[in-house]
Design goal:
Its main location: membrane. This protein has 1253 residues and is mainly α. Among the domains are: 192 residues, no CATH class; 177 residues, Rossmann fold. Helices cover 69% and strands 5% of the residues.
Length: 1253
């Protein structure tokens, strides 16, 4: 470099050992000029690749763009003028040094590149360029030193030695400073960008680079939330790449690709193209499963985000080791009274800059990794929902609704929780290796003792993780059983209450809960023991290393630099050592969830090609050739050797005794059963009316339209034909009346007629009607048959397959199919079958008496009674609302129907014996009162979940504290206080140890110092373990009491279940109970630990550096201001998230119940879109919550960085009165992060809300 510059490249006397530092002109013209250029050229390939794949339209050439381009051109001109000036000197005989040719050339080409990048970014739609902002910033920073140096040189010499280059440099500096200022401004939105139709778009998409870096774009929402509680419409729409349909589609495509690869691989192996090794054959190795690992699909889908997070994490990890080295320099500076003062100020400044960079990169990493966790959860929920729509009936019997809800709630959440820890798999070993390396540099081979201790503890941590995983497997099984039982209880709550069965079912739930709590208690004790190990491990490693260092050689003196640089490195080492066990535990829990999800996704699906819909025999719409069907592969066939042909436009009746397979026949036509052999053909669209009507939780009109556009004439015709007009007069809101979950506020007959009206309105080609007349009165059945199904009905000319027991309607059918034992016994017209005197005639003889009784009962009623029956349908039949059975078990429906027939016959017998069932008639005034009450109560039907406002009430915290135990809570707080006092005592003792006088190159009382230090450290671990055990006992007790209170409250509450979706209640018993069980107690311990650590830091710093007390007040004001803004925002966001999560499960439960109807009408994609929209609504509150944590983290850690800066600064200012030990103690404490804001707010707005809502 000396030859390139023609002068000395570096001069220590000029730059370091002086009170007025400067750098040589060679250093200025080479390194300082080249650093920004090297950065831009190094970043160029990746940036061009990014721009090429992120085209967003082009930005119109604005004034801002013109000025930035002009500045770039001017900088290019200045560089070339400088180059030409050097050539001019060469021509005129005074040859400049080569550096004056190289540097202008490099800088000129780089400025030309920057100018071209400005225009290319404009064409790609980039509104704010982070790459160019950093480039201009580096140009300004590297230009500050020459800026000062040239002025000082001119003042020292009394003249300017090179006026031309002096002038061009200051022009260059002014231009790069202007370019930096202008680059911080945003361009206008791209001209041809995709139109954003979102009513409230997320401001992050249009935020500038600095705003994104500091999360300033979130500030507006924080201020709004501080002024008033946030509402749902205040939340931003999700970014396109975070929306469910995008995320789920990417995951499904990747999964499909891997399934195809696995299928090809399996086919190749089967054909002998890829033979297994001889050893595998001899061992009887089974062929590879066709279903690829779900985790592989997840990682392939979100791999790019994971790689970006790895880059951020690697950068942050490397930066974290700079401050301990700077601390070493600072302690040496304090120990050297002759060192120039600017050294200390420079070290303090570098520590601040390094801390700020670490903060910004760390929170970009957190933002990236938490958003990836959000996408994991979105993708898993979407895939599980889509799978639940296509699973077979046999799978439904294996995987209950409660289990699938747990997959969507708990297991998907576990993936979201574990994602932030995944990078620790490589980051923790890296941090350990770097820490051990720097410790080796500081303490030598003595560090191997600490490393050996860490290695010995790995098997212990592994054993703990294995045991924790075993507990987790058992606990999840119990959780599934509990949620499944709660789902069944909520489904039949009216029956339970009418029969007074609450105590019996309460005992069942509590027995499962007791087993769950037993496992929780064991896991909590294990966790407390491992907490003792985790707390003691860093200290034991420190103790072992320092003890080995002072023991191996008496001349090894433990001074302040060695002790506190080692303590800082051990503090860094403590993070991966503490996090690794948590990572292992989380991975163990997530592996259980992964296996459960993998098992569910690998279950059998319905064969979409089971029913051929393209080709069919001309003149027919439904054909079955030699069809044999079963509900499950391990069950005998339900239907055998069916040969059926239904002509187009025919009305076909399917009759037969109970359990003969009538409903199964319709299911086979819909593709719901597994086809063992034969062919099924159907041509045209299908409408399906199941035996048990499936009603959605929406308005009556929406139930009838079922996703189609409203045609008033057709809608009115459907209502009239299905005898619903009279019901609309009774319903409080008419067609707009909201129907409760499972049609809870409709009678059985009304539900069936709404289901039939849905089919009529669909105007399909084929109508599959599974005994739709069984749930209505005989005169209503006659009306529906005449107006809808019969030859003169609105469906005349359509193909109708009617399963019925109504014998009176059979003569009007085109032909009758008689089933017996799963086979077709007879087919023909009604008259022809009567003449044969076969199984059909036997069927008529068996069912004719029931029909006669029904007609006799109908004839005995007056017209006035019929009308009154219709008017009071809303209050009839309380039991019928909860007699729904599984839709894939048609035999049980027939049994149920036969049972109801027998009850009806018994009732008629009692009436015939002169004991009529008392019947109360309503007067006109009572009818008016009932109608008024119904209209008034409409507001209460299926209300939206209430969102709490304002701060969490102290009573909520008080209730949890009482549940844990007030004495236990007080003792836990005192134990943590004692642990912090012991930690301070240990570090103060270490500081005094380092300041001990050295006699003959040795320190006295080493054994005593080491013993006291060890005792204080072990005392810390014992106190923490005691507090963890007490918190474990109290947490399990609180979980028991709170679950018991919730359970008793729901079981003993009035019958509000008509207006409260069961998904909302299941949300309380699944996700919120999980929070109380597994999250709340550890969060409280973390809060106490962080609180006492923050107090300890302030106490130690003020005691060591009293001048620091001056800045405590302004830093505390800034901290509290940011904290208040954050708490108000995050608390409300978590409330909105909790409220918006319940509809996901309610909609899912509704979908699983009506999956056959959804598939029959071909509305699977519509329901997937509805589910995606509900997940997006939930994520709209999750995403701002993630941003709010990052917004808080940047600002709180900035306060912590200021603490580091002022601690180092005041140590430099008062170095004459400071000992190296005290400086090392205070700065090492200051370098510990302030987590109080995050953890305290987490307790406030995440967990306490679930107790208070």
């Amino acid at each position: 470099m000396d030859a390139l510059c023609g002068s000395k490249f570096w001069d220590s006397n000029l730059s370091v050992h002086t009170d007025n530092p400067d750098v040589t002109p060679c250093f200025q013209n080479s390194v300082l000029a080249w650093v920004p250029c090297i950065y831009l050229w190094a970043a160029l390939p990746c940036y061009l690749f990014y721009l090429r794949h992120r085209h967003q339209g082009y930005i119109v050439l604005s004034s801002l763009s013109r000025v930035k381009t002009a500045l770039g051109v001017l900088l290019w001109c200045v560089s070339w003028i400088d180059l030409f000036y050097s050539f001019h000197g060469l021509v005129h005989g005074w040859a400049p040094a080569p550096i004056f040719f190289v540097t202008p050339l490099v800088v000129g080409v780089t400025m030309l590149l920057a100018t071209l990048l400005i225009q290319y970014e404009r064409l790609q739609g980039v509104r704010s360029s982070g790459v160019l902002i950093i480039f201009w910033f580096l140009c300004v920073v590297c230009g500050i030193i020459p800026f000062r140096s040239k002025i000082l040189s001119a003042l020292a010499q009394g003249k300017i030695s090179d006026p031309f280059r002096f002038t061009t440099f200051y022009i260059y500096f002014a231009l790069v400073l202007s370019a930096l200022v202008l680059s911080c401004s945003r361009e206008k939105p791209p001209f041809f960008s995709p139109k954003n139709i979102d009513p409230n778009p997320c401001p992050e998409a249009g935020a500038g680079f600095l705003s994104r870096l500091s999360f300033w774009w979130f500030t507006k929402l924080a201020i709004l939330s501080y002024r008033r509680p946030l509402e749902e419409w205040d939340l931003w729409c999700l970014n396109k790449e975070d929306r469910s349909h995008v995320v789920v589609q990417r995951l499904l495509e990747e999964r499909k690709k891997q399934q195809e690869q696995a299928a090809r691989h399996q086919a190749a192996e089967a054909s002998g193209k890829r033979l297994s090794s001889e050893g595998e054959v001899l061992l009887g190795g089974r062929p590879q499963a066709q279903e690829p690992p779900f985790l592989r699909a997840l990682m392939a889908t979100f791999g790019s985000s994971f790689l970006l997070s790895m880059f951020f994490k690697l950068t942050q990890d490397l930066l974290s080791f700079i401050n301990p080295q700077l601390l070493s320099v600072l302690i040496r500076f304090i120990s050297n009274p002759t060192a120039p003062t600017w050294w200390g100020f420079l070290v303090a400044g570098l520590m601040f800059v390094c801390s700020v960079m670490q903060t910004l990169i760390l929170h970009q990493y957190y933002r990236c990794i938490f958003v990836m966790g959000l996408r994991f959860r979105t993708g898993i929920i979407g895939v599980i929902y889509r799978k639940a729509l296509v699973i077979t009936s046999s799978v439904k019997r294996e995987s209950t609704v409660g289990e699938i809800v747990n997959l969507m709630s708990v297991d998907a959440q576990r993936f979201m929780d574990v994602v932030p820890f995944v990078n620790l798999l490589w980051s923790a070993p890296l941090q350990m290796i770097l820490a051990v390396y720097f410790l080796w540099q500081n303490l030598g081979p003595s560090v191997l003792a600490g490393v050996a201790l860490m290695v010995l503890l790995i098997p212990l941590n592994g054993a703990v993780a294995v045991k924790m995983r075993a507990f987790q497997v058992e606990q999840m099984k119990l959780k599934d059983s509990r949620v499944k039982l709660m789902s069944e209880i909520l489904g039949g709550i009216k029956v339970l209450k009418l029969y007074a069965w609450e105590p019996s079912f309460l005992k069942q739930v509590e027995d499962i809960r007791q087993e769950e709590l037993r496992l929780m208690r064991q896991a909590a004790y294990l966790h407390a023991t491992s907490t003792f190990i985790w707390i003691c491990t860093p200290f034991l490693v420190t103790l072992t290393t320092l003890g080995m260092y002072v023991s191996v050689d008496k001349n090894n003196v433990l001074d302040a630099e060695k002790a506190f640089v080692s303590v800082s490195l051990f503090n860094i080492l403590k993070i991966p050592l503490n996090m690794l066990p948590q990572l292992i535990s989380n991975l163990a829990q997530t592996s259980v969830s992964l296996k459960r999800i993998q098992h569910f996704l690998s279950q059998d699906e319905l064969d979409s090609q089971c029913v051929e819909r393209k080709t069919i025999t001309p003149g027919y719409t439904v054909t079955i050739h030699n069809g044999t069907f079963t509900w499950s592969q391990n069950l005998p066939p339900t239907l055998h050797s069916l040969d059926i042909q239904v002509p187009k436009g025919a009305l076909v009746a399917v009759v037969g005794p109970v359990g003969c397979g009538k409903s199964s026949l319709l299911s086979a036509l819909l593709g719901e059963m597994e086809k063992l052999e034969g062919k099924v053909y159907m041509k045209g669209s299908v409408a399906y009316v199941p035996q048990q009507a499936w009603i959605q939780n929406c308005t009556l009109q929406e139930n009838v339209l079922f996703g189609q556009a409203l045609d008033p004439k057709r809608y009115q015709q459907a209502l009239e034909a299905c005898a619903l007009l009279a019901d609309l007069e009774v319903l409080p809101g008419g067609s707009k009346t909201e129907i409760g979950e499972k049609g809870i506020n409709l009678s059985g007959g009304q539900r069936q007629r709404v289901s039939l009206a849905r089919a009529v309105y669909s105007d399909a080609d084929i109508f599959l009607l599974d005994d739709p007349l069984s749930a209505v009165d005989s005169h209503v059945a006659k009306h529906i048959f005449d107006q809808v199904i019969g030859p003169e009905g609105v469906l005349a000319g359509k193909t109708r397959v009617l399963v019925t027991h109504g014998i009176s309607f059979l003569p009007q059918t085109d032909f009758v199919i008689v089933l017996a034992d799963g086979q077709v016994s007879e087919i023909g017209t009604y008259a022809a079958l009567l003449q044969r005197n076969g199984s059909f005639a036997n069927f008529l003889r068996n069912y004719a008496p029931d029909e006669g009784k029904k007609h006799q009962e109908a004839d005995s009623r007056t017209a006035l009674e019929d009308k009154e029956d219709e008017e009071v349908l809303l209050t009839e039949d309380p039991l019928s609302n909860h007699t729904d059975l599984t839709v894939h078990e048609p035999v049980t429906y027939e049994v149920q129907k036969q049972f109801m027939r027998q009850l009806s016959a018994m009732s008629l017998e009692r009436e015939g014996q002169g004991r009529p069932v008392p019947r109360r008639r309503l007067g006109a005034a009572e009818k008016v009162v009932q109608a008024t009450e119904a209209k008034a109560s409409r507001v209460l039907l299926t209300q939206e979940e209430k969102v709490e406002m304002g701060t969490v009430k102290l009573s909520v915290f008080w209730d949890y504290a009482r549940a844990v135990g007030l004495c236990a809570m007080l003792t836990i707080c005192l134990l943590h206080g004692g642990q912090s006092a012991a930690a301070i005592g240990a570090n103060v003792w270490l500081s005094a140890w380092t300041g001990e006088a050295v006699v003959n190159g040795q320190q006295n009382n080493t054994s005593q110092r080491l013993g006291v230090y060890a005792a204080l450290g072990i005392l810390q671990g014992l106190l923490v373990m005691l507090s963890a055990i007490m918190m474990a006992v109290g947490g399990v007790q609180a979980a028991r009491l709170l679950h018991q209170a919730l359970l008793y409250n729901k079981m003993r509450s009035p019958q509000s279940f008509d207006t409260m979706p069961s998904g909302r209640i299941l949300n309380r018993f699944s996700k919120d109970v999980y929070i109380i069980d597994e999250v709340l107690a550890p969060t409280i311990l973390m809060l106490l630990n962080s609180f006492y650590n923050s107090i300890s830091t302030l106490v130690v710093i003020v005691a060591s550096t009293p001048l620091f007390a001056v800045v405590i007040l302004p830093l505390a004001v800034l901290y509290l201001f940011v904290q208040r803004l954050y708490v108000a925002t995050s608390r409300q966001l978590k409330r909105l998230e909790s409220v918006s999560r319940s509809p996901i499960y309610s909609h899912f439960l509704e979908t699983v119940t009506g999956s056959s109807v959804i598939r029959a009408y071909g509305r699977s994609q519509d329901f997937e879109a509805i589910s995606d929209a509900k997940v997006d609504t939930n994520q709209r509150s999750c995403y701002p919550y993630i941003a709010s944590n990052r917004w808080l983290g940047v600002r709180v850690e900035f306060v912590g960085n200021c603490v580091v800066f002022f601690t180092a600064l005041f140590a430099v200012i008062g170095r004459s009165s400071q000992s190296p030990g005290l400086v090392g103690l205070s700065v090492s404490y200051a370098l510990q992060p302030l987590w109080l804001g995050d953890v305290g707010s987490e307790l406030d707005d995440t967990n306490a809300i679930r107790l208070g809502v």
